[in-house]
Amino acid sequence: MSNLQICVAGVTGWTGAAVAEAVAAAHDLTLRAGVSRSAAGTEVAGAPVHATVDDALEGVDVLVEFTSHDVAKANALAAIERGVAVVIGTSGLTAADYEEIDAAARSRGVGAIAAGNFSVTAAMAKASAMLAARFLPSWEVIDYASAGKADAPSGTARELAETLGAATRERTLEDTHGAVEARGAEIAGTQVHSLRLPSFTVSTEIVFGAPDERLSIRHDAGSSAAPYVAGTLLAVRAVPGRTGLTRGLDALLLAD
């Protein structure tokens, strides 16, 4: 499908603004609208900015969702109900949220693609972790982010843990004494430890342990939104040809 009409929810945000700029510059994409409560009534790259997703979907083919975890699911479901495909980059949604989005998208016959991290290098880290989990049954995830990040774990860490949940692993908490919560939160059978400290942007590390050796796979994000733009546009171009939810940028990159 050529000249896709795109709406970016969170168009004035850290990632949304960078994505909107890239959409406006792409020869095969058109920035049709943006969503931002604080900037409603203005324009971004010539596209009108609306206060709500419901007001912004006229003539839109794909909604790109980069807002906050408390409204992201509702925005995605509103778009799907209107027959609009969705690309979700907002973190903080749960496995149950994604199941609901998948069911709605299948019912309406539209596509949805969600990733905790649209960075290509983060996708490669996740794919590498999934390969390692086939042979190494013991692992834990460490999730690093800035002190101001509200959701824990990050979308990157949650997606990794929930995907790893399908792999066989050794459980290690049954004999823990003392403050068991110090072992982290269990997400789909994986222990996840979320650090929230100044100086971090977003980093995700998975540590595998084997007798007398360890393997660590880590992704570190920089200080700009640039790493997430290419992966988001890849998803935008791919989602009209899909039905139901595809979770993880790696699922697109490794589809062939």
Write the layout of secondary structure elements.
Elements: E1 4-9, H1 14-25, E2 29-35, E3 43-44, E4 47-50, E5 62-65, H2 69-81, E6 85-88, H3 95-108, E7 111-114, H4 120-133, E8 139-145, H5 155-164, E9 185-187, E10 190-196, E11 202-210, E12 213-220, H6 226-238, E13 244-247, H7 249-253
Parallel strand pairs: 1-2, 1-5, 2-4, 5-6, 6-7, 7-13, 8-10
Antiparallel strand pairs: 3-4, 8-11, 9-10, 11-12
Describe the protein in words.
The chain has 256 residues and is of the alpha/beta class. 32% of the residues lie in helices and 27% in strands. The strands form two sheets. The chain has an eight-stranded mixed β-sheet with strand order 3-4-2-1-5-6-7-13, with helices on both faces. A five-stranded mixed β-sheet has the order 9-10-8-11-12. Strand 5, helix 2 and strand 6 (85-88) form a beta-alpha-beta unit. The longest helix is centred in the middle third of the chain and has 14 residues, at 95-108. It starts with a strand and ends with a helix. The mean pLDDT is 93.
Portion of residues within helices:
25-40%
| Strand residue content | 25-35%
Would you report the number of β strands? 13
The outline comes out as elongated
CATH architecture of the largest domain: 3-Layer(aba) Sandwich
Radius of gyration, in Å, reads 19 Å
Query: Mean pLDDT, nearest integer?
Result: 93
Q: So what's the CATH class of the largest domain? A: Alpha Beta
The strand line-up of the biggest sheet is: 3-4-2-1-5-6-7-13
What is the CATH fold-level name of the largest domain?
Rossmann fold
Overall tally of structural domains: 2
Distance between the termini: 20 Å
Query: Main beta sheet: strand number and arrangement?
Result: 8 strands, mixed
